[in-house]
Amino acid sequence: MVPYVRSCRTEGVLKFFLTKLPPGPLYLPKENPFGYEPGTPIPLPSWLSEEELNYYVSKFDKTGFLGGLNYYRIFDRSWEFNSTMVRESDHSTQ
Q1: Is 72 part of a structural domain of the chain?
Q2: What is the rounded distance in angstroms from the CA atom of residue 91 to the CA atom of residue 9?
Q3: CB atoms within 10 A of CB 12
Q4: Number of domains in the chain
Q5: What is the pTM of this model?
Q6: Which range of residues forms the domain containing residue 45?
Q7: For residue 91, is it within any domain?
Q8: Over 80: is that where the pLDDT of 32 sits?
């Protein structure tokens, strides 16, 4: 799926997640995760201006999506790993 995400322009990915995502659990099939071909026009809703979208596009163009995606991709494993680092402390105010 990562090559597909890389082939999509940032604007298209953000428009999809902000406007086309149906309610319910997220399901992205491998063959066409976003349900549209890159470059297909997606109209903006009334609550999102082109200027606002461009702001977010410019930020994600600098940093990309993979850092955030990887955080959630390894969330369960990360929790297991970090749980060994938790230590008890006494917060009593006696």
Answers
A1: yes
A2: 49
A3: 20
A4: 1
A5: 0.54
A6: 2-83
A7: no
A8: no
Residues in the chain, total: 94
State the CB neighbour count (10 A cutoff) for residue 13. 17
CB-CB contact of 5 with 65 (8 Å): yes
3-state secondary structure the chain: CHHHHHHCCHHHHHHHHHHHCCCCCCCCCCCCCCCCCCCCCCCCCCCCCHHHHHHHHHHHHHHCCHHHHHHHHCHHHHHHHHHCCCCCCCCCCC
28 lies in some domain = yes
Convert the pLDDT of each residue in 43-93 to its tens digit.
888 989 999 999 999 998 888 877 777 777 787 777 777 777 666 666 666
Which pair of tokens denotes residue 64? 């990309």
Checking if the pLDDT of 4 tops 70, the result is no
12 token code pair: 């298209």
